[in-house]
Design a protein that fits this description.
The protein is of the alpha+beta class and 384 residues long. Helix content is 46%, strand content 14%. It contains 14 helices and eleven strands. The chain has helices at residues 9-13, 41-49, 61-66, 75-85, 91-113, 121-124, 128-138, 145-152, 167-185, 194-205, 211-240, 253-266, 298-302, 336-353; strands at 3-4, 28-30, 36-38, 53-54, 116-118, 272-277, 281-283, 286-288, 293-297, 354-367, 373-383. The protein starts with a strand and ends with a strand. The structure holds protoporphyrin IX containing FE (HEM). Residues 70-71, 82, 85, 134, 221, 224-225, 228-229, 232, 268-270, 273, 325-327, 331, 333-335, 338-339 line the site of protoporphyrin IX containing FE.
């Protein structure tokens, strides 16, 4: 039977590593307000792939703010949204981005940090590469990147539990949609921009989505593709700077991949996924009534000691099976290949051009709301 933890879900989730505060004798926890929390690897994977656990809920703040979109839909609607995005994230396209788009952005970021010490890497640098990539894909003028960044970052809170929905977030959404439309009419991205591609895919496949649903999809894509990666690039730099291994080891592409996978396991930017029971269910022996919110802890799944011995240890050589930073099931991240390609190029360039990367000050903070990353640390990059 699942335990009843007399805790307010909002307070619980405000804590980093909230899954650790729940009893360890079960993976299914009933919290106050009829909210359920899943913490173990098996339970989290089961929930994310369960046919009667759904993403759509009329009261979800993200659905209200963005309108119908890929993240908040299920079944045929969801498949239609995914089909729209597929061409832009295909292996062929990612290969094009890898050759033509990413190297310039990565080198510019590395140029800007060499021989500096940053105590706010997340705010000042981490967004440069992801915003550069996604703005280009979307056909946005590079001069508007900072504006997009300022408007988009607070929207991450719309995906949290509990959500932070304010007048400001709605104003930002309206302004971003206006800018996206303006950029499209200015012809910024040409035929290969995201908006053009998804409209062409829609028309070719006869998918019935309105222009405004296409724009909402573009905006959600923008948020999903930028803020997750900005958070994780911060985690990568933090892991490189802690002296856990020699930077030279990361010149080997296989070791580099293992390093990125291990950092993704320990620091998944999406820590918790919110879903809803579409009917009465039993999960891990616990009755979960229809319409209950179900919180799936990706962070807990990735540090489940039954799957990952000494789960808090950074171990490049460990087996990655069971690590689910990009989730599993119908909503599993379609941008994983793009993201990992971007991270690999960045780590490669840092290793080639830095004699040393050192975390010089570390309060071991974790920004746990929205997209998670280590915070309160300073890092020094010494050029070769
Ligand atoms: C560190 C990088 C990233 C991580 C860890 C990550 C993780 C995730 C996770 C866990 C989900 C599932 C969310 C849910 O079910 O509620 C998701 C969905 C999504 N991601 Fe990513 N993501 C990353 C980067 C990207 C990038 C670079 C893009 C696109 C350029 C992207 C596009 C999307 C989209 C469109 C969805 C919605 C999919 C759906 O609902 O079917 N992500 N991501």
């Amino acid at each position: 039977m699942g335990g009843v933890a007399a805790v307010d879900p909002a307070r619980l989730l405000a804590q980093p590593y909230w899954y650790r505060t729940l009893p360890t004798d079960t993976d299914v926890h009933r919290l106050d307000d009829g909210v359920f929390a899943m913490t173990g690897n098996g339970a989290v994977q089961e929930v994310l792939a369960h046919p009667h656990i759904v993403a759509e809920h009329p009261l979800k703040a993200s659905a209200r703010a963005f309108g119908p979109n890929v993240l908040d839909s299920d079944g045929a609607d969801h498949r239609a949204f995914r089909a729209l995005l597929a061409p832009i994230l295909s292996a062929g396209r990612v290969d094009e981005y890898k050759r033509a788009l990413m190297p310039g952005l990565v080198e510019a970021l590395v140029d800007s940090v060499l021989d500096t010490e940053c105590d706010d890497f997340y705010d000042t640098h981490a967004h440069r590469v992801p915003y550069g990539i996604v703005c280009t894909i979307l056909g946005i003028d590079p001069a508007l990147e900072d504006r997009f960044h300022t408007l988009t970052r607070p929207l991450a809170r719309l995906l949290d539990y509990p959500t932070e929905e304010t007048e400001q977030t709605h104003t930002n959404v309206t302004e971003l949609l206006r800018l996206i439309e303006e950029q499209r009419t200015a012809g910024g991205g040409g035929e290969r921009s995201l908006l053009e591609t998804i409209e062409q895919t829609r028309d070719r496949k006869g998918i019935s989505l309105t222009d405004s649903e296409v724009r909402s999809t573009a905006l959600l894509f923008f948020l999903a593709g930028t803020e997750t990666s900005s958070a994780f690039i911060t985690s990568l730099v933090y892991c490189m700077g802690r002296g856990l291994f020699g930077l030279d080891e990361l010149r080997d592409p296989a070791v580099r991949d293992d390093f990125i996978e291990e950092a993704l396991r320990l620091y998944p930017p999406v820590q918790t996924i919110v879903r809803f029971a579409s009917e009465d269910l039993t999960l891990g022996g616990t009755r979960v009534p229809r319409h209950s919110a179900v919180l799936a802890s990706i962070a807990g799944a990735n540090r489940d000691p039954r799957v990952f011995p000494h789960p808090d240890r950074f171990d490049i050589g460990r087996l990655r099976k069971g690590s689910i930073p990009f989730a599993v099931g119908a909503h599993a991240c379609p941008g994983a290949l793009l993201a990992k390609t971007e991270f690999s190029l960045l780590v490669e360039s840092l290793v080639e051009r830095c004699a040393d990367i050192v975390v010089t000050h570390d309060r071991r903070g974790v920004a746990s709301q929205s997209f998670s990353h280590p915070s309160d640390f300073a890092v020094r990059f010494t050029a070769k």
